[in-house]
Amino acid sequence: MSDRNSSLDEYRRKRDFAQTTEPSDQTAAPRKGKALSFVVQKHAARALHYDFRLELDGTLKSWAVPKGPSLDPHDKRMAVQVEDHPIAYGSFEGTIPPGQYGAGTVIVWDRGTWTPIGDARAGYRDGKLKFELKGEKLQGLWTLVRMRGKGSERQQPWLLIKERDTFARPAAEYSVVDAEPDSVVKTRRKAQKTAFPLMLAPQLATLVRTPPASGNWCWEMKFDGYRLLARADADGDVRLFTRNGHDWTSKLKALAQAIEALKLKSSWLDGEIVIQGEHGAPDFQALQNAFEVARTAQIVYYLFDLPFHAGEDLRGHPLVERRERLRTLLDDDESKVSPRLRFSEDFHAEAAHLLASACRLRMEGLIGKRADSPYQSSRSPDWIKLKCTQRQEFVIVGHTDPKGSRAGLGSLLLAVHDDAGTLRYTGNVGAGFSEASLRKLKSELDGLAVKTAAFEGTAPKGAHFVKPKLVAEVSFAEWTKEGRVRQAVFHGLRGDKPPAAITREKPAAAPKTATKNRSKPTVGRLTHPERVIDPSTGITKLEVAEFYAAVAPRLLPHLKHRPVSLVRGPDGVDGALFFQKHGDTLRIPGLKQLDPALDPGHPPLLEIPTRTALLGAVQMNVLELHTWNATSNMIEKPDRICFDLDPGEGVAWPRVQEAVTLVRTMLDELALQGFLKTSGGKGLHIVVPFRRGPGWEAVKGLSQAIVQHLAETLPKQFVAKSGPKNRVGKIFVDYLRNGRGATTVAAWSARARPGMGVSVPVTWDELPTLTGGAHWTIRSIDARLAEPDKAWDGYEAARKQTLTTAMRVLDYLPDGT
């Protein structure tokens, strides 16, 4: 017994048992026989970790495991040996008060018995302990291996490894600490007022492509911030936890005080903390900066759920009841409710309309919640999220050198874990940084530098590699077929999400029970509707047909009386594409063949005048539609100019937005009104309607003169020569689309490329909100279609403008003038 007492001396020395409720002595007798006890305690101290404890020789041999156990044999989890604990500690749950060693919340995450494989004492002494666990969460064979270190180290590092057996599971498929975050003690209690959990995992939303068309849903704005859960204990003391259980109370003392003023007892609140930017929308980077400089006074806590109140477990109550009680708490006495605490309002309207409004307001998107759903500590289809742009977290695995006057770094190398748990390179992000953030990131990354890459894939030449320790939040236009992100923008670092949990987010279909009666446009006869057209997204031929059926009322006016060229993809966007402007061999119902005199010496040009012809074209694997700048009744007199702003390699999206603004400014100087649309691809299009008069050569010559003037005036931004080599770092404004027979993709047409973006008319006011030329895809277009088609209001009136002023200002005299 004396040996046991001496081994617990350090444990006792570190604690003031007048302050902490941790057991002070060995009040439990050691177990007899081979089955010894083990416990894993989840400890939300200064840093969240898991305390792994094995009973041996009358005490609990203990290790702190920062990331917690993993069921994947490939994961070798660091386990730092700490002082022995008394066996009585195995049943301890509670909050260690501030100022005490290990201050924070402790729960019994798992418990059971363990059986050593071989001599336990010898294995422990020699640094290789093999054993079998029989717990409520952890089972099967495990090994603890001591790493080589200095013999004088007070806290020796070990590795905790899951052995290969029937209980092993790949990390990319399943994380036991994420899937089962709660106490095993709590689950054995009866659901009554005393069953108040010391820790609570949040309910998470499932990403979906489209909103459900039926069902009773409540819609809230999706905040661009950090998820935060607040626990008010029986004595009113408040603790604040991130979604992963990190205790952030010390970082948010003023916010904790604001919640304490509500005088809640035995309650849990759920919400999101944000900082509002200059436009009123949450600013994630500002939130991150607030923590970095320890200035959190501007942080606002939007509350949206009340899982527990006054000791009562509300998780089984319908969402609307929980939220009504929460609203009452915040409205009951406004004098004691801090302006830092706000109720997250919900909206009962069409999700498509709400999403469009959220995007215009520069919000991240929408959260939908079933009105009658319970609260579940897991990811659930009862909560869904719709995003305005593609946006997720990536692991930072390296960086490139800066170019030109830029300081710090050029871009960050990004990666995600694949299904096997391997880090895969997914491209880089070079936009969205301030000078301060570039310097700070460079400093942090220098401290993580390594010589070899920690990921699979080919990185840019000259890249510098780092340990995969930091997580970045990034928005982007689309995934390429190679698994790279396009037009990426950096929003900040995520300190609340571990790198090991970062995978590629794949949106699910809307909940089945909510889409049972969903009305979809009829598409008529369609062969092989299940054929995958876009492997990068899984878009099928049926989805393409449904898209064109939905946009037909908006697309057909842009096709009216105009010769059309068809881009066909029998083998999908990754196969060979065929550009077809003559239709003598096509058998499409309703397809109109124009007068052969319009294009002498060739088969007739084509026109798609009706919905029937449009859907018939889809049946023949047509993916894109391109139109002439003239109508068939006056083919030699164009009635518009199209400028295609095509960014070269290395041009970030904000530069494209700036460039299109510069082109618009020049058009204003030339007394020309232009109309903006996304290209559905990389860039943007400006369409300038005018009164017919000049012929093809004059119009093409004028458009070339405009582009040359831009390139001469702003040579760092624009180039007037086509070709990839000429466009590196610059934007080519393509005037070649304005010659006879040249075409431009029609407004509301899809594009035959990964992601299947859509060319959409937009207002000039919407330019700052666009995330890329493929801001909308055929899977995200519903929100746009729910809005009135008024982006190009004024187009018909602008057809009265002439090119005379532009020719005079540019001193351009076409032949024959």
From TrEMBL:
This is DNA ligase (ATP). One of its GO terms (molecular function) is DNA ligase (ATP) activity. Residues 18-27 have a biased composition (Polar residues). Keywords: ATP-binding, DNA damage, DNA recombination, DNA repair, DNA-binding, DNA-directed DNA polymerase, Exonuclease, Hydrolase, Ligase, Manganese, Metal-binding, Multifunctional enzyme, Nuclease, Nucleotide-binding, Nucleotidyltransferase, Transferase. The keyword Nucleotide-binding applies. Residues 1-33, 505-524 are annotated as: Disordered. CDD domains: Adenylation_DNA_ligase_LigD_LigC (cd07906), OBF_DNA_ligase_LigD (cd07971), PaeLigD_Pol_like (cd04862). It comes from the Bacteria. Its EC number is 6.5.1.1. It catalyses: ATP + (deoxyribonucleotide)n-3'-hydroxyl + 5'-phospho-(deoxyribonucleotide)m = (deoxyribonucleotide)n+m + AMP + diphosphate. InterPro entries: DNA_ligase_ATP-dep_C (IPR012309), DNA_ligase_ATP-dep_cent (IPR012310), LigD_ligase_dom (IPR014146), LigD_PE_domain (IPR014144), LigD_pol_dom (IPR014145), NA-bd_OB-fold (IPR012340), NHEJ_ligase_prk (IPR014143), NHEJ_LigD (IPR052171). PROSITE patterns: DNA_LIGASE_A3 (PS50160). It comes from Roseateles agri. The keyword Nucleotidyltransferase applies. Residues 1-17 have a biased composition (Basic and acidic residues). Its cofactor is Mn(2+). Residues 292-419 form the ATP-dependent DNA ligase family profile domain. It holds the Pfam family DNA_ligase_A_C.
